Amino acid sequence: MLQIDNLHAEIDGKPILKGLSLAVNAGEVHAIMGPNGAGKSTLGYVLGGRAAYEVTGGTVALDCADLLEMDAHERAAAGLFLGFQYPVEIPGVSNLQFLREALNSQRRARGQEPLSGAEFLKLARAQAAALGMDAEMLKRPVNVGFSGGEKKRNEMVQMGILNPRLAVLDETDSGLDIDALRIVGDGINRIMRAPDKAVVLITHYQRLLDYVRPDFVHVLADGRIIRSGGPELAHELEREGYGAIAA
């Protein structure tokens, strides 16, 4: 599904990714772990198409299509969802308005009919209920006044509505208490655990992986993946830290 080969990227002339390669097949969950400054968030931004990040080498293919040649909205229509470590607030734009426009623009790009207001409202309420989110919060401006946990839960509602094929989730566990962590983990499993979908889960800590069990764990350091393994690798990192692995 996702094939990254020898990816190099920089921001403001500073190299961040320095030859990163990764293959993610449909039906798999891959966890990316590593120290601060390793390039984890940069990887997410590059895959999502954030303009400030310049790709200077390598290739990225999503379902055999050149991801790097697509604009950000085209990547979303192709089935990519990027979850942010710090979801942004959008004053004056309601969740419902934002999500309906996002979903219907993707449906139009795929040659599908847009959902009616009633159809979309039914879908949005169902996704909010599945995440334990009060449907009234859907009427509020996007993330405005939300706690950290509410923002992450709202992001899972967004992911459920958009129903992507590939989710790249950047530190989704950041700012979550124990209960919210379980709810978000259950949401990722419910929405994305399927034979035709895949997840790249960027995280510092093993705790989220108790709820979203990865097929593979990769250690990213200095812009490259330096080690890969199964779920046991996350436990090793928890015990020994990154220093022993990167040495």
Automatic annotation (TrEMBL):
UniProt keyword annotation of Kinase present: no
ABC transporter domain: residues covered: 2-247
InterPro entries hit by this protein: AAA+_ATPase, ABC_transporter-like_ATP-bd, FeS-cluster_ATPase_SufC, P-loop_NTPase
Keywords: ATP-binding, Nucleotide-binding
Coiled-coil region(s): none
A GO MF label: ATP binding
PROSITE patterns named among the record's database cross-references: ABC_TRANSPORTER_2
NCBIfam families, per the entry: sufC
Protein family: Belongs to the ABC transporter superfamily. Ycf16 family.
Name the UniProt record assigns to this protein: Fe-S cluster assembly ATPase SufC
Originating organism: Sphingomonas spermidinifaciens
Protein encoded by which gene: sufC
